[in-house]
Amino acid sequence: MARSTLSPLERRWLADPPASLARIATVDAKGMPHVVPSGWTFDPETDQIVLGGRDVARTRRAAHVRSTGRAAVVIDGLAPGERWSPWAFIVRGQAQVDETANAVRVSCDEVTSWGLDLDWA
């Protein structure tokens, strides 16, 4: 179930996450979804996922964010080891293009996660 605040575990995980790509999902004016991988960081001062890349301001995802003001982000993977140990951090929320930082910023308005407490060793 989605929450509107980050849990203490999620905050600890975001402070030192495993190497991973995010996927940002946006939608165009006709409702067609668009998903692309992206590098990411977390801004603890604003509780936003910051998604960078090459010429972000000129991408379709940036155009969609400018149009709708919304986006979703999934950061996920498998913990090392032989057991099937998936983990995921998912947010949906208000989004904006940060021209200065060449990034899209997504607020953690709706948060869902699982497996973040796995042993990463």
Description:
This protein has 121 residues and is mainly β. The chain has one domain: Pnp Oxidase, Chain A, CATH 2.30.110.10. The protein contains two helices and eight strands, in the order H-E-E-E-E-H-E-E-E-E. Strands 1, 2, 3, 4, 5, 6, 7 and 8 form an eight-stranded antiparallel β-sheet that branches. A hairpin with a 5-residue loop joins strand 1 and strand 2. The radius of gyration is 14 Å and the shape is globular. The two termini are 28 Å apart.
Give the arrangement of secondary structure elements:
Layout: H1 8-15, E1 22-27, E2 33-38, E3 40-43, E4 48-51, H2 60-68, E5 70-78, E6 86-98, E7 103-107, E8 110-114
Antiparallel strand pairs: 1-2, 1-5, 3-4, 4-7, 5-6, 6-7, 6-8
What is the highest CATH level, the class?
Mainly Beta
Q: Mean of the pLDDT scores?
A: 93
Number of strands: 8
Going by helix content, strand content and strand pairing, the class is: mainly beta
Number of domains: 1
- How far apart are the first and last residues' alpha carbons, in Å? 28 Å
CATH architecture term: Roll
The gross shape turns out to be globular
Number of helices: 2
- Low-pLDDT sequence parts: none
CATH topology: Pnp Oxidase, Chain A
- The CATH superfamily appears as Electron Transport, Fmn-binding Protein, Chain A
Largest sheet: 8 strands, antiparallel
The H/E string reads HEEEEHEEEE
**Helix content, binned percent:** 10-25%
Radius of gyration: 14 Å
Report the portion of residues in β strands.
Answer: 35-45%
Condensed summary:
The protein is mainly beta and 121 residues long. The protein has two helices and eight strands.
